[in-house]
Design brief:
Layout lengths: L12 E5 L3 E8 L13 E9 L1 H13 L4 E9 L2 H12 L7 E4 L5 E7 L5 E5 L10 H5 L2 H6 L4 E5 L5 H13 L3 E4 L6 H7 L7 E5 H7 L8 H15 L4 E5 L5 E4 L4 E4 L12 H14 L4 H15 L12 H11 L5 H7 L2
Helix pairs in contact: 1-9, 6-7, 7-8, 9-10
């Protein structure tokens, strides 16, 4: 594995909660919407699906290398899927001693259905082991928070209960960690109203989630949604940094003083599933490497662009060398600090 060329890492590790699970993809025959009592054929696709914490943590660990410690906190079922996921996480270099087995529960699973025109949706188990990740589960990691004091990242990702993420952000605040978080569209109004964002340093959302945060239609003008979200969320937490992704429209970041837009890099798209999580991971990697938020946004855009060339939601080919080659082939415009990370 070819890690990024980092002279001195700003952080020594990351501790996070979020979804750990797997899924499958099924392509339906015909583009008409599936009916309530309809039976329809199709085919299983050769794609591996992973959940949010695993995706983000994988790229963070593999790009930063063994000098950086990634500590996922969560639960899997006592089943083949859970054992396989734990094995994959260990192979990537992550610690897994704080990912517990939840007796009697299955590992989080998502069944994704895709129409031939590319539209689709998913069905996800809501009574999986991930649903049992609570505040007490996070509290068991208090020693790790203390070890990361002043030099760590606390990551709160979706697909586990809000209370677990609140506890993680509380402990991250107590130990002066850099607090990064993401929330679903459904969760955003509650998160904004509750004031939870006051305990977040970096919020990573997509355009739909940004729209939900300010209660406007997601199909509106992207620039207006971005501007509105930055203004409204800034009133909740004036020091909040924000990343907003919008697929082929690129992404925006707000560093507290300046709004930056980075266009999406050209890529031969196979699947966009997991691209937002790859972008978030790239930003965290960039910040750990000492980049500005704008530079980290470029790196996140590069990681996301290469990830969509894979059918899987974790592209295990991604490392420094593959990113450098892809940047050259795609003609990605990168700043000198980002290019330096990709050098031999």
């Amino acid at each position: 594995m070819s890690h990024l060329n980092i002279r001195k890492q700003k952080y020594r590790g990351m501790i996070g909660v979020g979804g750990i699970g797997s899924g499958s993809f099924f392509e339906l025959s015909g583009n008409h919407t599936l009916g309530r009592e309809e039976s329809r054929g199709g085919r299983l696709l050769d794609r591996k699906d992973y959940c949010k914490l695993h995706i983000i943590a994988h790229y963070v660990q593999t790009l930063l290398g063994p000098d950086f410690e990634t500590i996922p906190v969560g639960k899997v079922g006592n089943d083949d899927a859970g054992r396989r996921l734990l094995d994959e996480m260990r192979q990537a270099g992550m610690r897994t001693d704080l990912v517990r087995t939840s007796p009697g529960d299955s590992t989080l699973f998502s069944f994704c259905f895709v129409y031939p025109d590319g539209a689709g949706g998913n069905l996800t188990t809501d009574d999986s082991a991930c649903s049992k990740v609570d505040a007490a589960c996070v509290t068991q990691a208090v020693r790790e928070f203390a070890w990361l004091e002043d030099r760590g990242i606390a990551l709160a990702a979706p697909e586990v209960p809000i209370e677990a993420r609140e506890r993680l952000l509380d402990l991250g605040t107590r130990h002066s960690l850099f607090r990064a978080a993401a929330f679903t569209s459904e969760e955003m109004p509650r998160v904004v109203e509750s004031g939870l964002l006051k305990r977040v340093d970096l919020l990573a959302v997509n355009l739909d989630e940004a729209a939900a945060a300010i209660n406007v239609p997601a199909d509106g003008e992207p620039d207006r949604i971005v501007d509105g979200a930055v203004e409204a969320l800034g009133r909740v937490n004036p020091t909040l940094r924000i990343s907003i992704t919008a697929g082929v429209r690129g992404s925006w970041t707000w560093d507290g003083a300046e709004l930056s837009h980075v266009p999406a890099f050209d890529a031969e798209v196979v699947s966009t599933a997991g691209a937002g999580d790859a972008h978030f991971a790239g930003i965290l990697v960039g910040l750990a490497a000492g980049l500005s938020l704008r530079g980290a946004q470029e790196l996140g855009t590069l990681v996301a662009a290469l990830s969509v060339t894979s059918p899987h939601t974790i592209d295990k080919r991604i490392d420094r060398e593959s990113l450098r080659e892809f940047a050259g082939e795609s003609g990605a415009e990168l700043s000198n600090p980002v290019r330096a990370l990709l050098e031999e």
